[in-house]
Amino acid sequence: MVAPQKSNRKINPQPYQMLAFCNDLTLKDDFYLNIVDWSSFDTLSLGLDCSVYLWNTGTSKIIEYIKLNLKMTKLCDLGFPYTISSVKWFPQNFQLAVGTTEGKVQIWDAQKLMKVRDFDGHRSRVGTLEWNKNILSTGSGDRIIYHRDQRSPDDYIQAFTGHKSEVCGLKWNLEGDQLASGGNANELFLWEGMNPTSVRKLEGHKAAIRAISWSPHARNLLASGGGHLDRQIRFWNTVDGRTLACYNAKSQVCNLQWSSTVNEIVSTHGWWKNDVMIWKYPSMQKIATLKGHTYRVLYFSISPNGEDIVTGAGGDDNTLRFWKIFNTPSKNKKTENKCSWKLDGLIR
How far apart are CA 35 and CA 309, in angstroms? Predict the structure, then answer.
């Protein structure tokens, strides 16, 4: 019998940068928030309380430049009684979608620092946002998924109903013709285009489903992760709804993200381990385990070049950490520097 080959790739187990929040700037330890996103032009958006901040991650390429010029720009301050519950960059331009706990959805221009559009409709927290070309899909605690189009004067062009509890995960596939939605009532639905009737319900998880990721390497391959009463990562054939594989992650699954360049998937976890894991698919061989966060790793995004990830945790951790995990051809490599910065007092 031939033993399976081990991966020769080495991943630095330490983050190359850590941003520590203090005073009034806090990351909330809330499973239903999605308040960190990394744009295609290398800018991080952070939803903190009633404000959205922007930070140019490109400054981390030169250590001296960070020390002198690290700044966070305040994109907006919605004021009382609003609280930011989700942010999501439009993939091709400088527009950012913002959701609030009060059910509001707004579009902001990050270059002009101005609001572009307001959308109404939701009656509860908007915890998940997802773009599909010009369509913005929004999921809420009111159990409804609305689809918005800035070209339409209406607040929404279609509504999906069927969830029995809060919608906490939304992901369109790369082709833009299938939407997966996860809910707090252990539900995972599949939708086709703008058809308001779900084509399939994928059953098996025993807790809330927030972590969803479509494979960029095989059509109709979906990964999903369950909450702390489930702790499973499942892989599905969305054509017939079959479970292809199921793995016990042994802790709450908070995020899943497939690499665009290699057949590997990243998972972040909460109770009980608070780890970041990189897995080889389909063997689910563990390539690396990244430790350091002391609270649930609820916040996650991947860099536009597909090499780096940012992870965030609230509570007493209250940090964002940047890790280099994938190798892709690039002329502009980030310089790895084991440094941390306090974000208090760096806002302009």
Answer: 15
Task: Enumerate domains of the chain plus CATH numbers.
Answer: 24-201 (2.130.10.10), 212-328 (2.130.10.10)
Task: Say how many Å lie between the first and final Cα of the chain, rounded.
Answer: 62
What would the pLDDT profile of 98-151 be if each residue is shown by its tens digit?
999 999 999 999 999 999 999 999 999 999 999 999 999 999 999 999 999 999
Query: Which DSSP string do the residues of 216-270 spell out, in sequence order?
Result: SSSTTEEEEEE-TTT-EEEEEETTTTEEEEEEE-SS-EEEEEE-SSSSEEEEEE-
Q: What is the pTM of this model?
A: 0.91
> Rounded distance, CA 186 to CA 283, Å?
26
Is residue 114 packed enough to be buried (19+ CB in 10 Å), middle (13-18) or exposed (0-12)?
Answer: exposed
Q: How many CB atoms lie within 10 A of CB 99?
A: 29
Q: How far apart are CA 286 and CA 264, in angstroms?
A: 10
Return mean pLDDT, the chain. 90
* Burial class for 168, CB neighbours closer than 10 Å (0-12, 13-18, 19+): buried
3 state SS of 41: coil
The span from the CA of 23 to the CA of 244, in Å, is: 46
